[in-house]
Amino acid sequence: MFFRALTLFRFSPAVAADLVRLDEALADNRLPPCGPLEMGTRGFVPPIGRGDDAALTHSVSACTMFTAGGEDRMLPAAVVNDALYRKVQKITEDEGRKVGSRERKRIKGDLLTELLPRAFVRSSRLNGYVDTKNGWVVLDTGSLKAAETVLNLVRSALGSFPAVPLAPEEGPRVLMTDWLATGNLPGGLALGDECELRDPATSTGAIWRGRRSDLDGEEVKEHLRAGMQVFKLGLVFDDRMSFVLGEDLVVRKLKFLDVVIDELPDSHQDAAAEMDAQFALLTLELERLLGKFEEWFSLPRPADA
Q1: Are residues 113 and 244 in the same domain?
Q2: What is the pTM of this model?
């Protein structure tokens, strides 16, 4: 249940009021099983529990969790191309003629129809939640592409969901470079042991990556003096969580430290109660972190139109 990455979007108070119908809207967009001739399907699955009668949202205070699901048939292009090659070769040998592009396309379509029903189906899940009090969409992924796919699913379900990417008034790259260069970090924030420096002058400029590194070391300072800037920086917040923050404000390698995990109850009545406790703790911890993001990077919440 604890997220391992954060891709963030924001929405206005008016949008928050509309989210009271989220559970009802998602109910019409459950994940359908992948049909024998479908490459994949998308929809929503229960974040807690299973079955057609399980709820598609789970709320704690002002935060409502949902889970986007997918089913994809695993049919590698190499398998199709190999079967196509053998078919074309057999026609060439048996009939002594060359197979044209239109016929190759038809044969490939026939092969897909033949092979798809036998292909394995891979399931995927991506958790997220909306915080209606503070106007956040929080998705457990470090991929902007995957995040946009999920956001589009929510938009489709609701009819409209004007959540927008973060618009920092303070440049994250400039701020993080200053933190690393001066050691003057905001209260409660400490350097981790990972960073990525780049020469911002060109898109193909030099890149330096350090892992398990001393970020106060002379090597890092030398790169900064040469004009390199921070594109990713490992940080520790309040000795409660560690993560790598990108200049796009995507959080990766998120890890809740032992002091947080120890606050979970030792035992639960069932798995649902355990997930409920984890979600409550997760949202409480992230509310504090995202509040600091607002402060550090001057992240405005969209206003009502």
Answers
A1: no
A2: 0.89
